[in-house]
Design goal:
The chain is mainly alpha-helical. The chain has one domain. Helix content is 71%, strand content 0%. α2 packs antiparallel against α5. The longest helix has 28 residues. The protein is elongated. It starts with a helix and ends with a helix.
Length: 115
Amino acid sequence: MSFFNGLREYVSENPFKVAVAIAATVATGGAALAFAGPLAAVAGGAGLLGSASTGTAISALSGAALTNASLAALGGGALAAGGAGMAGGTMVVAAAGATTGAVVSGGIVASTSKS
C-alpha cells in the first residue's frame, strides 16, 4: 500500500505534470487508433509481417488488401484462422501508441521532478 500512498502524494503535489502525462498518453493512443490502418500498412509493406491468411506475402499486396492483411496479422491472424482479425490489429496499434506516450511522458515527468 505504500506505493499507492506515494503515488497519491505525488499526484496531489504535481497535478499539472500528471495531467500532462495523461493527456500525452491519451493523445498518442488516439492518434495511433486513428492511423492504425496506415501504420499497419507501412509495417506490412516493409515486409515485417509475413504472409496473409491466403498465403500471399503481405509485402506483395497493395491498397485496402495491404491494410486489411496487415491489421489482421498484427491481430494474430484472420478471424477464420482463430486470430483477433483486423479489430485485434487495430487495438494492438492503439495500445502500442498509448504505451509509447505513457513511457515517454512518464520519463519526461520523472526527469523534471525533484528528488
